[in-house]
Task: inverse folding
């Protein structure tokens, strides 16, 4: 990773002096990076964002931007833009006035204010709506105005707090593309807060997964998805199967799963030798055995199907294998012969599984 | 069902408008006392109102006292609302009760209290005394209205302003106050009307020099009972009607909609 631009060092925030809403966050963010803080509500991601913006002061720890200590600086003395969850547009100002507001407050030269605001409105495609008031704009348009207002004064960092939460699905996808385009064109460092793991996957350079005020894992979307550092990350980052098991150092390349028996795993897994482990397989890595010849390397489960959920493009089969719950996702075109009550053979390659230290499940059965 | 609702609405409207239908013709009456229907029409009582010193003084007093108590009410109620809505402090419940007390205590009791209290300060029969008394009566409603507006205020707006580089003072004047303006204006209007309508406290403490229209009307109907009182009523209703129409016109502009 490139050198740190925004650096959070052991940042802790406690509101009541007893529990920590944010508990020792440490992360380095590079210039121009798109980092997502991902986590369930109450995991501390928004509080962390508020501390970067300066609306909350850390109880301990430090925040530095490009070597400057920001920790005690007032929000209006920081050069950080922010886009709020509910847009927070000033209702008594037009779109153009909203965008010009930061420039006026920051005493930009008068002739520059209008030109910059126009450029920014053009960037978000709202030139025609400059004179509208927020209540005359759609949700997506308001979000664009909020983006323009957050970017117009060329902040060092742009913070986005669940900016798409209030939009419907199609508009949300459209805005995701839009925000990524702006990120590319402006080249600004963006920190994006969301609880939507798909959004995090599709937009981020890196994802920081929050849980109980701590960062459980920081990594690229695929790293976090395929190689979760904990069961929490694995379950939060999408659909998953977890099996508890045990690694015997005497049998490298094998793991003994409870109630299932020994299965092959990739030897390259940097798992703790011995001791109790969890094995994770994403449902889409499981394959219906009819479609692939058994090469003797793949692990094979006999799955009895209890329910089928059809998504159109794919089908999620819910069932059990050796009494253990199992979820398999099959392409819609391959699932036509499946029905409830059927038993099928599903297989997975040793490299499809991920081994991690045993921990308690996020959603206990 | 809809028909019943319509009939009820019409009945209510008739009851509300009926007094006007009597008062307005009576103000143009030629009768020497209240008489309906009027025996003839002229504008003589309008002339008498406009030439009668005591009526004009009462009108001026009413406006001055209503404006004064409106301003004083805002000075107290707006900061109080901010304090109550945004901060926690000891004795909040008790102080809240004290603020609301004027709503609960009967006006006659309040009036009697003010008579004694303002006498000590030599403020009976002065506009200042009236302004103070009316302010106390207006504070609860103004406080409630501004508090409600403030509770609905999205604090992210203030965060957005600070994020844009505005310090606390500029944030307040450029964002908080304009967004709260409709609520504050409603509170101000309540305070103004409360003072303008108030008769009981006025009768107790206004005396001769600070007599307001309600007090003067009350005296007039007891001592003179001539149709000038109908003239005053008509003018007041007209003034209020114009005020409401103007505020409705403002509403239509998006700028005043306040999101």
Result:
């Amino acid at each position: 990773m490139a050198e740190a631009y925004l650096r959070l060092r052991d940042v802790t925030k406690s509101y009541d002096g007893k529990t920590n809403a944010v508990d020792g966050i440490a992360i380095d963010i590079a210039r121009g990076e798109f980092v997502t803080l991902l986590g369930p509500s109450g995991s501390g991601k928004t509080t962390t964002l508020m501390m970067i913006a300066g609306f909350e002061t850390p109880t301990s720890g430090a925040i530095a931007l490009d070597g400057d200590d920001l920790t005690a600086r007032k929000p209006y003395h920081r050069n950080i833009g922010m886009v709020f969850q509910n847009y927070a547009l000033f209702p008594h100002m037009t779109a153009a006035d909203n965008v010009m507001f930061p420039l006026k407050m920051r005493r930009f030269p008068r002739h520059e204010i209008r030109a910059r605001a126009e450029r920014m409105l053009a960037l978000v495609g709202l030139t025609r709506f400059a004179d509208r008031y927020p209540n005359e704009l759609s949700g997506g348009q308001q979000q664009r105005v909020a983006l323009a207002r957050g970017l117009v004064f060329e902040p060092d960092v742009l913070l986005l707090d669940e900016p798409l939460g209030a939009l419907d699905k199609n508009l949300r996808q459209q805005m995701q593309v839009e925000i990524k385009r702006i990120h590319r064109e402006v080249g600004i460092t963006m920190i994006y807060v969301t609880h939507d793991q798909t959004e995090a996957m599709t937009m981020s350079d890196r994802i920081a997964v929050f849980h109980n005020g701590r960062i459980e894992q920081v990594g690229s979307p695929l790293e976090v998805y395929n190689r979760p550092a904990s069961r929490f990350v694995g379950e939060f980052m999408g659909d998953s199967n977890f099996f508890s098991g045990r690694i015997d150092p005497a049998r490298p390349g094998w793991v003994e799963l409870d109630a299932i028996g020994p299965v092959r795993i990739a030897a390259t897994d940097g798992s703790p030798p011995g001791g109790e482990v969890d094995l994770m397989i994403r449902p889409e890595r499981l394959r219906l055995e009819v479609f692939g010849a058994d090469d003797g390397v793949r692990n094979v489960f006999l799955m009895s199907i209890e329910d089928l959920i059809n998504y159109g493009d794919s089908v999620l089969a819910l069932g059990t294998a050796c009494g253990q719950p199992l979820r398999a996702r099959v392409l819609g075109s391959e699932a036509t012969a499946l029905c409830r009550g059927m038993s099928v053979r599903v297989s997975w390659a040793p490299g499809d599984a991920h081994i991690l230290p045993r921990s308690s499940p996020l959603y206990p059965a | 069902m809809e028909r019943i609702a319509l009939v009820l609405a019409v009945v209510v409207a008739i009851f509300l408008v009926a007094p006007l239908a009597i008062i307005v013709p009576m103000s143009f009456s030629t009768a020497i006392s209240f008489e309906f229907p009027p025996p003839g029409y002229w504008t003589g009582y309008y002339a008498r109102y406009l030439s009668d010193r005591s009526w004009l003084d009462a009108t001026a007093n009413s406006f001055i006292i209503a404006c004064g108590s409106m301003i004083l009410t805002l000075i107290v109620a707006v900061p109080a609302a901010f304090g109550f809505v945004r901060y926690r402090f000891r004795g909040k419940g008790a102080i809240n009760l004290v603020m609301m007390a004027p709503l609960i205590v009967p006006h006659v009791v309040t009036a009697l209290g003010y008579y004694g209290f303002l006498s000590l300060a030599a403020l009976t029969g002065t506009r200042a005394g009236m302004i103070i008394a009316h302010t106390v009566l207006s504070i609860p409603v103004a406080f409630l209205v501004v508090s409600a507006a403030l509770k609905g205020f999205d604090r992210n707006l203030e965060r957005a302003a600070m994020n844009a580089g505005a310090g606390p003072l500029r944030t307040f004047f450029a964002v908080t106050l304009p967004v709260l303006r409709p609520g504050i204006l409603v509170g101000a209007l309540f305070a103004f009307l409360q003072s303008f309508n108030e008769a009981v406290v006025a009768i107790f403490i206004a005396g001769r020099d600070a007599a307001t229209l309600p007090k003067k009307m009350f005296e007039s109907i007891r001592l003179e009972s001539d149709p000038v009182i109908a003239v005053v009523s008509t003018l007041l209703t007209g003034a209020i009607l114009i005020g409401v129409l103007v505020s409705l016109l403002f509403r239509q502009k998006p700028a005043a909609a306040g999101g």
Observations:
- The first strand of chain A starts at residue 6 and ends at 13.
- Residues 4-231 of chain A form a domain with the Rossmann fold fold (CATH 3.40.50.300).
